[in-house]
Amino acid sequence: MNQTPYKLVIGLEVHVQLSTRTKLFCGCPTAFGASPNTQTCPVCLGHPGALPVMNEQAIALAIRTGLALNCEIASVTKWDRKSYFYPDLPKGYQISQFDQPICGPGYLDFADPENEGETLRVRLIRAHLEEDAGKSMHDEGAGKADSQIDLNRTGTPLLEIVSEPDLNSPEAAKAYLIELRLLLTYLGVSDCNMQEGSLRADANVNLHIAQGDTTVATPIVEVKNLNSFRAVERALTYESQRQYSQWQKDGRDITQAPKQTRGWDDAAGVTVAQREKEESSDYRYFPDPDLVPLHIEPRQLEAARQALGDLPAALRERLRYAGLKEYDANVIVSQGRSMVDYFEQAVASGAPAKRVSSWIQQDVMRTLNEQEISIEEFSISALQLAELLQAIEKGDIDNSRGKDVFQYCLQHPEADLDSAKAALGIEAVDQGELEALCRELLAENPKIVAQVKEGNVKGLGALIGAARKKNPNADPKQVRELCHQLILADA
Amino acid sequence: MAACCRKLSIMNIEEQSAVDLGRRIASGEVSSREVTQHYLDRIAEREPAVAAFTNLADDAVTTAEQADQQIASGQLRSPLAGVPVSIKDLLCTASLPTTCGSRMLREFHAPYTATAVQKLLDAGLVVVGKTNMDEFAMGGSTETGDGGATHNPWDRQRTAGGSSGGAAAALAAGMVPLSIGSDTGGSVRQPAAFCGVCGLKPTYGRISRYGLVAFASSLDQIGTLAHYVEDLAASLQIMAGHDPRDSTSLPDPTTEYLAHLDQPVQGLKVGVIREHIDNPGLDADIRDGVIRAQQALQELGAEIVEVHLPHTSHAVPTYYVIAPSEASGNLSRYDGVHYGFRQLGDSGAAAPLDAMISRSRSQGFGPEVKRRIMLGTFALSAGYYDAYYKKALQVRRLIAQDYGAAFEQVDLLLGPVTPTPAFGLGEKLDDPVQMYLQDLYTVGANLAGIPALSLPAGFNEQGLPLAIQLQGPALGEARLLSVAYQLQQQHFFEPRIAECS
Amino acid sequence: MPITSSQVRKVAQLARLELTEDEVQLVSDQLASIVTFVDQLGEVATDGVEPMAHPLDIHTVVRPDTEVPGLSREQALSNSPNHNDECFLVPPVMAR
């Protein structure tokens, strides 16, 4: 637990851009990075007379996400207009969902970052669909030049996932977001690219300060512009300290100050109060008469449930059941579904789970990073890796020669285990050969022999290096053991 | 004094129904070019006195010639191919500006054409111009728009009604055979009644609203005005049907409305709405028109019964909460940013952007539009939503249930369209509530989403047109049209064109 | 129901309409008369009546997630009161 004199209380609102081909209410593409104002039509420009029509895929993705987040899915949901004026909101209202969101209460469990082996649960209030606004580009200087408006993003489907204030540390908030992003990635509902704004978080933060028998709550602050996991952690750390010192200064509690909005300035490392509009809270929600309600049938839900596939939590369980530690299971699951498949194929082919896990985390992932490729593009198949690791397990190849084989296979994608061994000159060393090699080594290193006789076995390591120079196929473990035995027998 | 009027004779193009014109054009008896030129001449002659149009299509003759070619080559077979039509300036057209009668959109060129208009174009109709209206369709007198007042061709000192006043006046003055309008609370039926022409507001969702600039989305519906009931049927047949671009357009199949015009009236039950007739504010001549319609329907074999719509007196207040509420949202898009009127403001301490938005809206909208935006914003704002907006939605259901109960007893409802004939220009501008009460008989159909038709019922002693209203259950257009058609065939009223002298 | 000047100013601010002091008074009076008129709805018993936001009983109208050609940038910007080669231009968002 933290040592601060207060409890930090955080709720997150996460906006997820759903990976549909087209916008929520029109057929314009949603691709990121297009030249400004080249992906619009009368509907998303908010032209007079144009009308919205729901994108069925956005609804399917919202249902899929809601199911994975253990949410109640509404049997009837509807659309509402949220009115406010802003130049990147061309209709003067956003089509959103007010009192009947598509996804009702749910929750997400994730590993407690501060207590190994413990799980935290964030309760979710709701998740609703809405259309994104466009982009305003303001004059960074004196604010005298006109602002530029690009409406390419206008109308892109967003799912806003709103949590209860169940998070009590910046680390927990970050861990929740990381788990949420992993889940969304598994579901294939979003690319979750934070740089491109596909995943955006706002945090509602305040402190509960113990005052004798009672607790004082500080005014709630909504922190916006959290564009990376690191920003979430830093902003929340900063904001909790700021609120505490503010409270020490003015003593104002939640009943004495309205909710405030502050933006995170990543470069300066501070949160900055944002302009409040006096009427900003009066959004005059009302049912959008241009759209009809949406009914979700039980069989549609059941089909979506069947199609969910294995989710990270279940896969972690499965990997632990296969013999991995929690940490290792998490690393592999975090690499995505294809890595889990790769792992499981290798294990299914007979390679021991721990060895597969270790090779994936070291050799495989390093190679993927170096080559900047994904596991799907990796040239060594799970079966090949399994064959190699089985050979090591049986002692046919030692671990170090195994790495040579791995490197050889990377450079020669067509090679199999036998051809790699042949090319590298790897062959079994028989017992007679090995004993002759060891005796030769002992004869050449009388100092080490003497040390070992006196009980100092460190020198044996140097013998291994020398042995491998004479015969690279000599198994270091066997060399060490045999040398030791020969010295002791001689004593 | 009203202009003197002239009974139609078969010799003139303008005495033909649009369907007749289409038939003659198709047979080669007359060309679309000749017909179109005739109406353009009439517009040139009468438009200065009537002011029915906001913009005229200068390519109408060329379009007509193209239609003639396509008809000759057999590519166009629609019953109205080659027939001229005017479009209310609330429907988007890629070829002509779409001003909505507002300074806000004076320069606005829609980048697309409304689905209903596109269907007319595809059927070979020739658009001759866009007609005048109350700004953003908010009004009942076509005098609040950016283009000024439209004059009633029967009496230039009187309003043509609204908001589709230009559409009705253009017909009454013989400047077009067919006009497309829109009806949110009576905006097709009331001007039709004031100008002595027929007007149909179909079932909500029967015609796509895509490209109809929204006033109140859950009430708006495109409709037709014409001299002849068969023209309402023919144009509905072209425009009706599901549109994948409009979520609120009905998926139900359409009917061959023209083919059903002769279905028997014999045995139908027609309900006379007691609350509508008993209203002491109802003009005696109009009440007499309703009674004459009862008799005519009885002669056609219908049975007349009395029905009640108990929430009638609450229809107008319900409408004047719901429509402005929706409008306040729909008109938020006019902020001077992406299109339309922009006026920079004195920002002072405020941001230049906010000053621009407020100044543009304040100067771009007229008084009635601003009044309704204020009213709707108020009804939706924190603390008032339940008492006004939600309450109105609840009463709306009761009103719809009244209609539902009535249509369990009868096939159609009969009553007046308006409490009075056309009133004077400027007469009600300073008294919004009096203006709103004009909508007493028409808003119910919009709130319930049912079809309703305004039918001429002769003239009063001052020479002002009188009218009756027929209402039917949802998707009951075929029945509504056939009964109106047979009334017309039975000489219940005679189409007339004003001299405008 | 009377409508106060401060209510009118607040609603005007929400609706982004500028009103002069004279207009505030006029609008207060007009709104008050309209609101008094619609206050008749209070007479109607509506307990348990489901609000009717829409006249139709249709639901779940969706479109497939397929691209439909939209507007060119020139078309998108063509009605704009001010724009450059790429974007709509608006006066600065922040106060000077």
3D structure, described in words:
The complex is a heterotrimer of chains A (491), B (501) and C (96). With 491 residues, chain A is α+β, with helices and mostly antiparallel strands. Chain A folds into three domains: 6-299, no CATH class; 310-424, no CATH class; 431-490. Chain A has helices spanning 56-68, 170-187, 229-250, 298-306, 312-321, 326-334, 337-348, 353-371, 382-394, 399-411, 417-424, 431-444, 446-453, 460-470, 476-490; strands at 6-17, 54-55, 76-77, 80-83, 93-96, 106-111, 119-131, 135-137, 147-150, 157-163, 199-211, 214-217, 221-226, 260-265, 270-273, 286-287, 294-295. In chain A, the strands form four sheets. In chain A, strands 1, 6, 7, 10, 11, 12, 13, 14 and 15 form a nine-stranded mixed sheet that branches. Chain A has a three-stranded antiparallel sheet with strand order 5-4-16, with no helix packed on it. In chain A, a hairpin with a 4-residue loop joins strand 14 (260-265) and strand 15 (270-273). The longest helix of chain A has 22 residues, at 229-250. The mean pLDDT of chain A is 92. Chain B is α/β, with parallel strands linked by helices and 501 residues long. Chain B has a domain at 8-264 and 452-496: Amidase signature (AS) enzymes. Chain B has helices at 18-27, 32-50, 60-72, 115-122, 165-172, 189-195, 229-239, 274-278, 284-299, 315-330, 352-364, 367-380, 386-409, 432-437, 443-448, 477-489; strands spanning 5-7, 53-56, 84-88, 126-131, 151-152, 155-159, 178-183, 198-201, 221-226, 269-273, 303-307, 412-416, 452-459, 465-471, 496-498. In chain B, helix 7 (229-239) packs antiparallel against helix 16 and helix 10 (315-330) crosses helix 13 (386-409). Chain B is globular and about 70 Å long. The N and C termini of chain B lie close together (11 Å). With 96 residues, chain C is mainly alpha-helical. Chain C has a domain at 5-43: Histone, subunit A, CATH 1.10.20. Chain C has three helices and two strands. Chain C is flat, with a radius of gyration of 23 Å. Chains in contact: A-B, A-C, B-C. Chains B and C meet through helix 10, helix 11, helix 12, helix 13 and helix 14 of B and helix 1 and helix 2 of C. Strand 9 (147-150) of chain A pairs antiparallel with strand 2 (88-90) of chain C.
- What is the number of E strands of chain C? 2
Oligomer: heterotrimer
Rg of chain C, nearest Å? 23 Å
| Percentage beta strand of chain A | 15-25%
Q: What is the CA-atom radius of gyration of chain A, in angstroms?
A: 30 Å
Tell the overall outline of chain C.
Answer: flat
**Biggest β-sheet strands, sense, barrel of chain A:** 9 strands, mixed
- The class by helix and strand makeup of chain A works out as alpha+beta
Distance between the termini of chain A: 58 Å
| Model regions low in confidence, pLDDT < 50 over at least 5 residues of chain C | none
Q: How would you characterize the largest beta sheet of chain C?
A: none
Q: Which CATH top level class of the domain at 5-43 in chain C fits? A: Mainly Alpha
Q: Tell me how many strands of chain A there are.
A: 17
> How far is the N terminus from the C terminus of chain C?
40 Å
Fraction of residues in H or I helices of chain C: 25-40%
| Nearest-integer average pLDDT of chain C | 94
